[in-house]
Structure formats: C-alpha cells, structure tokens
Fold these 4 entries.
Entry 1:
Amino acid sequence: MSSDFDGDFEQHDGTILLMQRADNGHWGLPGGHVEPGESVTDATMREVLEETGWQIEVGHLIGVYSDPARQTVGQGAERPQLVNLCFEARVVGEAGQPTTPEETLAIGFFAPSDLPAPFVPIHDIRIQDAERGSRETLVR
C-alpha cells in the first residue's frame, strides 16, 4: 500500500485515509480545529483537504470523545481538555497535494487491521468505533 505523496491512491472498501504527522511522526486520522464562522462539517472537509489533498463528503457522526484521561493535552496547571468529533466520510474528489505540507509527512489508505506505526494513541478507539458499523453515535 502506498504511503507517500507520489502516485495515485485508490479508495478500497474498508480502508481508512490516514496521514503521518510532521510534528511527531505518528500516523492518524486527519483533522483539526473549527475556524470562526465555520461549521464542524465544513471544518472537517477543509482539514482533510488541507492535510491530505483529498476532497470528502461528510457522513454520520461516529462519536464524541471527551475522556479526560485521553483528551487532556499539554503540561502544567492549565491543561485544556479537548472534545473531538469523529465523522464517517467518503472520498469524492481526486487526490491532489496537501496544502499544509508542514503538517503532513505522508498519506495513505490502510486497512483497520494493518495500521501503520507509530499511531496516534487517541485515534485507535475512534477507528474501533467506526468498525462497529453502527449508525448510533457513541459518546466517550
């Protein structure tokens, strides 16, 4: 399976679009922050396009993740607790180049049973939840 920017990526049933983060070298789901005036759906589409070069259509909400043990970041007394939303999505546009190459080292489609390493630790539960195939939104 290809995992760099060279070549075309084919979306295979059951594979997941992942990116390798430039800040720590870990592989994980593309994503980011909502900008002022932006909906979560628009932010999801924008972030995936910026980080992977792929255009997506956002599907159902897989889960809401706010577990303090997994979602608290930083160091010191003021450590923010993040709340993340994870959506199902489908690739609808041709691959281009990421527009934020300073954030992305590589991209690729991977089977959930064959995830690349190292992997972003807080993303594993999201992939497991998506693999359940349920239309129920989970809150964790």
Note: Confidence is low (pLDDT under 50) at residues 1-10.
Entry 2:
Amino acid sequence: MMPWLYLHFPSLQLDALKQNGELGYDLQNDKNSRPLIVVEPRQNAVHQLNSAARSEGITLGMGLATAISLSGELVVVEYNRALEISRLQELAQWLYQVAADIAVFEPDGLALEITNMLSLYDGIDNYWQQIDTILVQQQVSYQRALAQTPLAARLLAQNQTHCADMHQSDYIINQQLGALPIDRLELSKVQTQQLHRVGIHHLKQLWQVSGKELGRRFGLEVLSYLGKIKGQMKQPLNYYQPPAHFSQYLELFHEISQAQVLLFPLKRMIQQMSCFLLARELVVTTVTIALHYRNDIGTNEREKEHPDTNLEISSAQGEYQTDHWMTLISLRIERAQLNAPVVGITLITGVLVEKNCTVDDLFSSAGQKGQMTPNQLISLLQAKVGKKAITGIELHPDHRPEFAFGYCAPNLSASNPNAPNLSLQNLGSPSPGKRQISAAALPKLRPLILLEQPEQLAQQCTILHGPERVRSAWWGPQSIYRDYFIARDQQGSLCWLFNEPQGNWFLHGYFC
C-alpha cells in the first residue's frame, strides 16, 4: 500500500464563499447560482470558477476581459492567498482527528502519511470513509491520489480530474506519473523550455535520461526535483502542529452594515469553535470578535480611518456549546455600534481550560428546561449591560462598616466561608421597648443594605438589640467611635443605628 495520500483543494476560496452561505448562491445546486470567478491579479486571469460561470463558456486561465464579455452577470472576486492558507490550516485541524502526520503544502494541499493509520482503521476503505466524512462536512472540493512520496502524490492529485482508485498498483501509479506532461511539473518556465527543445515532453522521457547527463545538461535543481518524486532524495516537509487556541478569519462576500446581520456568519464560526473544543474536552471563558471594516483592506495600520472593533464576550464558568455562546454574542451584538460596513470577521478564543464534570442531584432538575447556573446568569447579565456593570462583593478585614467590604469580579463557583450571617429570622416581632435578642446568639449582625453615608436619624425607633461598640483606626483621620443598635422604625423596617459619644444618632442601614 502506498504510504502517502495527497488531498488537493483546487477551489478553497470559492468553496469558502459558498460554505458561508453568501447571497446569490444556491448551495444545493451550484449551477443555479450567479456566475462567479476568482481572478489572480498578477496574471489577470481566471484562477477559480463555479459551474454557472463554466456554463457561460468561461474556462480556467482565461483573461478577465474575455470572461466579462461572456457573461453580463459575472461576479469577480480577487484571489486571496492568505484566506486559502487559513482555510487549509482549518482543514488540517479537522483531519488531525484521524491523521497523525499531516504535511502542509500551501496554499492548497495536504499530504497524509497513512501507513500507521491503516491498522487502526482496518484497511484503506474504512480509513478513507473517516476522511471523506470530514471533507463532506467541510464542504470542500478535492482531488486525491496515492503514491510512494508526497511529491508524486501531489503531482497526481493536481493533474487528475477525478479521484484516484484507492487500490491502484505501483505499476499503474508509475504509468500515470510517467504520462504527465513536462509543463505540469513544478519546474520553472526556462527549465520547461529547455526540456522541450531536446524533445522531452513527458516525465517518462525525463526518467530515461541518466542522472549524470541530467545534472550536466539541465542543472542539479532538476536532478534534485526528480529524486524527490521517486523518493531517492529526502524532501523537507512542513508538518501541521495543532494550535493552542482557536482562531478563524471569515471574509464576507457582501458588506454588512447592520450589527444583527452579523449573527448569521458568526453562528457558523462558533459551531467550528464548539467542535474544536469538544474534540479536546475543553471550554473557553472569553471569546474576542474582531470586526474588520471596509477601509482596512490595502491600507497601512496607521492610516486606518476606521480601526477594527473588538468585542469581548465572557462566560463566568466557561462554555463550549454553540447555543450558550450565541445567546451571549446576540446580547453583546445588540449594544455594538458599527463604524463602517464590515467586510471581515476574526474569532479568537481566550484561555482554554479543561471541562469539569459537575455532579447534580439526579431528580432536582429532571425534566426542567431553561435552567441555568448562577455563573450562566452572570454571563448573560454581563453580555447585556456590560462586564463592568456586574460585580461581586468581597469582605475586607476591617471593623469599620464602610470599609468591611469591596467590589470584585463576580464569582459564584465557590462559596465564601467568611461570609457574614445576614439572617434575622430569630428577631421575631418583639414588643416595643423590649430587647428579646441575645447578644451571644446573634453576634455581629450586619445589614444587607448599607447606606453610602450615615444619615441623621429623623424618627423614633424601638431598640431591639445592642449596643455593639465599634472603635477602630484611632491612629488615622478616618477613625470611628460608635455604639451600634438594631431597631425597628415606625414603618416596621429593621434598621441599623449608631450613636456617637457626642450624643448624635445616625441611620446606617436596613435589614431585609
């Protein structure tokens, strides 16, 4: 069995446009879509085209002017090599689930070393079924070939209009290689012309020339190239390394001026991210969405009229599921202001953490839908009103009530053992003027509602418990000397009062 399987993707950019569901494209039947071509700007020629354009008589390599003259509804897109390389990395990432060694040939090919995988999947047919399932899900066009070396498999895949038989013999594969025209090899134009001058038009003719004669007449570069095809010389390969974070760029075929419309392309990106996290048993707590505006293309960073807008969406407990993230993103998008039409989106994950399995009561949430954890509620509120608007409370080691707590990032994943007891259920309904609360039973009670500044007491209250003397920070300008009481005011509310040595009474808080 041939050790190398090569996958050639002849129309990655075109497939990406169709996959993203751009307007004007029928994903079920490409022939019903508008004619579209991808043009290589340096050569001003057709680099990729869909079936609708092909039916208009347009062919690969045709000049742009000729192609436009053949179709009045032709859509022209400039070739973007960086986009194809990014998409190729994504495909390698998906195939990494079933392949250990993947060599990347930018911008349109992947070579898979399959020898060690065949025993795991019990043969080439079962193994190819796994690969084909991934490629179908990714909605990409491809050509495949098997060979003894990655370069030989690459040549066969690039020059075949159909997928090769997975059970071809060595003899058939060598016959196919030998029949390749010289101008289909990865040689320079000058080297191809030199070979044509001496009557060499196919690879099998080149193989018949001795190595010494080949190097003398055509140079060591051609000799080295042939040696790599046959496996006589080692070829350096760029093996795929899985990224530590998920990052994806999406180029929009149509500009988007309304923030809500961004949810459609974002959903597909989040689905890709969810699969990435699920395969690795990870969750992410922060996702950053960068919106690229129309004037970003071809401009210097300092000359950007509209810099990118970065939207940061957080999940308090970490999520991987698409629905959870789309809910948070939808709330954040509602508050987004677009500075210009959006032409591209970048999605980047923050810190990835291992997914922890939580054990809940078997019957507590059985059959209940729509239930959410406290951390999920925090995430929703932060996405709706902003991260800075939602805070938690932490205790400080200070006897002064004004300084005994502070604000912090909300975190309900663990309880605080130092949290004060705010329950007043034991207070009951005491008779006016009688103190029915034992100081030993309820030490250092604190109200849930504390006024920003103590207010002068303006009504008569019935004292229920106290005094509790608080004297602290006598060494500084913010010292206090107070006797605190729990009392009931004329409206029946439980309040927290204190008086000072001068005899003044103040209201400082309320118990709920």
Note: The domain at 1-178 is CATH 3.30.70.270 (Alpha-Beta Plaits).
Entry 3:
Amino acid sequence: MSMVSDILEELWNSELKYKGIKINIFGVPKFSKYNHKSMCDTLGQLKRKGLIEKELSGLVLSKRGKEYVRKKFDSLKQFDKPSNSSKGKNLLVMFDVPTERKREREWLRWHLKKFEYIMIQQSVWVGPSPIPKEFSDYLKIIKLDKCIKTFKLEKPYK
C-alpha cells in the first residue's frame, strides 16, 4: 500500500485525536513509519488536491476525499481464496486488460495469485478450478469479463 492510501485510510477509520491528529486506539497513527519530510510533502499534495482539509480539531477528509476513499474501497473488492477449488491446476485463464485499466489488471493478477494460480506468461495463468462465482460476478460488474477467457484443461498443469 502507498503512503497516500495509508494516510487516507487512517483518516477514514480514526476517531481518536491527539494534538489535532487522528490516532488509532494505541495512540499511534498508522503512517508513523514514514519519515517526517515525506509525510509533510504527501499531506501537502493531498491538501492541494482537495482530499484533506485542516479544521480546528486537526486534519480530516474533505467531502471530495471521502468520495475518493469510498470509490477506492468500493471499486475493487477483495475476495477470499475459494475453499471448494480442486487440488490440481486445471483451469487456464487468459486476459487482455487495456493499459488504461492498469489498476484493475494488477488487482486481477493479485487475486489470481491469492487463488493459487501461477503465471505461465504475462497474461496467461493456470490454477485450480472453479473461479469463485462471486469473483466472476464481480468481473461482470466492473466490465472485465469481456477481457478474460478461461479454458478447462483435460489434464492438470504440472
């Protein structure tokens, strides 16, 4: 996760404040692992983009920032590894996601790894079948289903 994501997520989830900065239940901002200069620069960028604003109580997400975070959380859901998948790698997945949808392509690759698929070539993966129904339904919602083809292998891939 990037520093921007960490900051926005922390501001979204935090309720407690210490010296004007929202903190977690342990009193430590999640993003304390970053150096001070990087943090100041990133906060400045977020402020210029209108994603955060300063109030008397400290830094908060602006209306635009809340919408940005909501879209980020809603746009690419997370799925758990299916429990009913076969032991052998018997499903071939091929995809061609356009470059302007890079984020969705990276999300798809991440989930294929999570589902124990292995990459044969850049956009050719093999793994256990079936792909979870909720996952394939979600691919239709985000309109990636037209970019993906699956093929059932006669013998498991070794």
Note: Residues 61 and 99 are 30 Å apart (CA to CA).
Entry 4:
Amino acid sequence: MIITNNKLVNYVKASYSEMRKVTWPTKETTIKLTWVVVLISLFVAAFLGSLDFGFSQVVKKIISTFN
C-alpha cells in the first residue's frame, strides 16, 4: 500500500533531497580529521587518568593519616 500524501513518505523525500545537497569531505580530509579526534581523545584520556590517579593518591594519604 503506497500512499503519496503520507507524512513519512514526504519526510523521506525531503531528507533524500537535502542529502543530495551535502558537500561530503574527501577521503584525505576524513582520515586527517579522524586522526585529530583520536589524538585529542587520547590526550583527554591521559589527562583525566592522571587527575584520577593524583586524586586517589591524595585520598589514600588523607585516609592513612587517620588510621
């Protein structure tokens, strides 16, 4: 059953039309930006890991002073 005035059909048609207007990045750009994301993610993970380690050491020292 195909209904041309269906809102879903109109939505899919409009979405397809908009997707054809998109300027997609080149393969090289995609690879470069992927590396940027990976490197920033690793940096943030290392930074947060070091903060976590530092805070846990401080808490251990505080707890050990009360024992």
Note: The CA atoms of residues 43 and 49 lie 10 Å apart.
